[in-house]
Specification:
The protein is α+β, with helices and mostly antiparallel strands. It folds into two domains: about 100 residues, no CATH class; about 80 residues, no CATH class. It is built from six helices and five strands. A hairpin with a 2-residue loop joins strand 1 and strand 2.
Length: about 200
């Protein structure tokens, strides 16, 4: 049904109805041009009719309609999506890790630092590296949040080593970045994967 809706509203290479689905999460994207004013209501009614036939209930608390043109955003698969002006003054999509996802990561890492505060730093690195690798591999398409996480982890590691020496501060002159990431093998795969907009594939 969704594929038919896309083709029915297609104009050349442009589609005025798009969608993305993962498991039972679904996002519908509808062109906001005034000439398509009836699409939102038509698509919403059709979706509800199809779900009713399948005896699938919609989670009304989590389902909502947002207007990206008014600065609103929506969450999907751990990201917040909105539209912003590019440096060339053109509209483009922006997607950033949801704040609660970053908070959950930092909370998990804090627990490791707390539980292993008396352990050698090498042991701590062994425990946090897989956590960082998994999180960054998923969310590394946005630079600001990734940079924040990298700086936060580096400071926590430095404080851990300083405390083992019963010293304050971060040991900026004692341990270089090259030593942290080269010799200590602290995770350093924070390269951001910049992506361009592409046509969504059918789910």
């Amino acid at each position: 049904m969704l594929e038919r809706a896309k083709e029915t509203t297609r104009h050349g290479k442009h589609t005025y109805v798009e969608y993305a689905r993962f498991a039972d999460d679904l996002v519908m994207l509808i062109n906001a041009h005034p000439r398509h004013a009836g699409l939102l209501g038509a698509v919403t009614r059709r979706l509800r009719d199809e779900f009713a036939k399948l005896q699938v209930e919609i989670n009304e608390e989590k389902s909502r309609t947002v207007n990206l043109a008014c600065g609103e955003s929506f969450g999907f698969l751990g990201f917040d999506f909105r539209r912003i002006r590019s440096l060339r003054n053109k509209w483009r999509p922006q997607y950033t890790p949801r704040l609660k996802k970053r908070t959950a990561l930092l909370r998990k890492l804090k627990d490791v630092f707390r539980r292993y505060k008396s352990q050698p730093v090498g042991r701590v690195v062994e425990l946090i590296n897989p956590v960082l690798r998994g999180w960054v591999n998923y969310f590394a398409i946005e630079s600001v949040c990734i940079s924040f996480v990298k700086d936060w982890v580096e400071k926590k590691i430095r404080r851990h080593m300083q405390r083992s020496r019963q010293q304050q501060g971060f040991g900026w002159k004692t341990w270089s970045k090259r030593w942290l990431y080269g010799e200590l093998k602290l995770f350093n795969g924070y390269k951001v994967r910049y992506q361009t907009a592409s046509k969504a594939s059918p789910a």
